[in-house]
Amino acid sequence: MSDPTFGQLTKLSPRDYWPDEAADFTPWLAEEANIALLGAAIGLDLVVEGVEETVGSFSADIICRSLPDEHRVVIENQLNRTDHDHLGKLLTYAGGLDDVRATILIAPEIRDEHRAAIDWLNAVTIEGVNCFGVEIQVWRIGDSLPAPRFIVVAKPNDWRGNVRATVNKSLTHTQQLQLDYWTAFRDYLAESGSDFLPHSPRPQHWATVSIGRSGASLAAIASTWDKERGRVGGENRVELGLNGDDAGEVYERLQHERETIEEALGPLEWPQPDESTKSRRLYASRPADIEDRDSWPEQFAWLEERLQRFDETFRERVKRR
């Protein structure tokens, strides 16, 4: 057996790729694929709400929403070692905005003093408010293309453990089945090289996927209840969900394009909206038995194909103002 051959791993300077923090790094980070990389490193599903958003007399680098709860996340970044100025700004932005549940400080190097400050904030803030320190690195193997990497160096105590704890409580048979289903679905998408990355598997009948706009998302649904037959039997469903003050306006606009939309997707369900709420939805569905684990690969293929077509049909439509 011959000895394996390895390439040389080289750490590069972020400044070589983003010369200017505001003009280069912030816009790059705000792109959908890149904010998803950051979210995956931390364990949050992030959608950008605004870039260089005014907060008092300052401007926050990036403001996101975490899905599916829609809480705000404030990001402050710099391309040198962290300093008091950027950490102070981050706290100022968090204090000046409503419903902030997470702050993220990003830099090539988080100073020990600032890491300790973030740890202290996590220790003294109320439950549900989380602070992170993340280092941005760039690496290359041999002559390969450079690759960015986010390293979480400061986070709430037992952050991953707390996330796991929410799904490791005593589960009913159905909840365990749902958790197994979405875990297998996520693995299926990863193995197939899919562009979709659902939120962390949970014991519920749906898994949500970002569509690149706060207040809108796609959901893959595996229900043990078949709405058509009105009894236990199960169904798969892919759904576009709209929430927020403009959900009704967006939904009405989509209804005006219903013929074109259904030419691309086939017949859809357009439930009569409940005017007492701001949410709207539309979906495609079919019978499915999620108890039948042997049929899961076929169910996953249908869900992925529908998610892809829904994304292609609605992504740009829901972004229009």
How would you characterize this protein structure?
By secondary structure, the chain is of the alpha+beta class. It contains nine helices and eleven strands. It has helices spanning 21-30, 32-42, 84-96, 112-124, 159-165, 173-191, 247-256, 258-265, 296-319; strands spanning 9-12, 45-55, 58-67, 71-77, 100-107, 130-141, 147-154, 206-210, 216-226, 231-242, 280-287. The strands form two sheets. Strands 1, 2, 3, 4, 5, 6 and 7 form a seven-stranded mixed β-sheet that branches. Strand 4 (71-77), helix 3 and strand 5 form a beta-alpha-beta unit. The longest helix has 24 residues, at 296-319. The protein is globular. The model is unreliable at 160-168 (pLDDT under 50).
Helices, strands, pairings?
Elements: E1 9-12, H1 21-30, H2 32-42, E2 45-55, E3 58-67, E4 71-77, H3 84-96, E5 100-107, H4 112-124, E6 130-141, E7 147-154, H5 159-165, H6 173-191, E8 206-210, E9 216-226, E10 231-242, H7 247-256, H8 258-265, E11 280-287, H9 296-319
Parallel strand pairs: 4-5, 5-6
Antiparallel strand pairs: 1-6, 2-3, 3-4, 6-7, 8-9, 9-10, 10-11
Q: What does this entry show, briefly?
A:
By secondary structure, this protein is an alpha+beta fold. It contains 9 helices and 11 strands. The model is unreliable at 160-168 (pLDDT under 50).
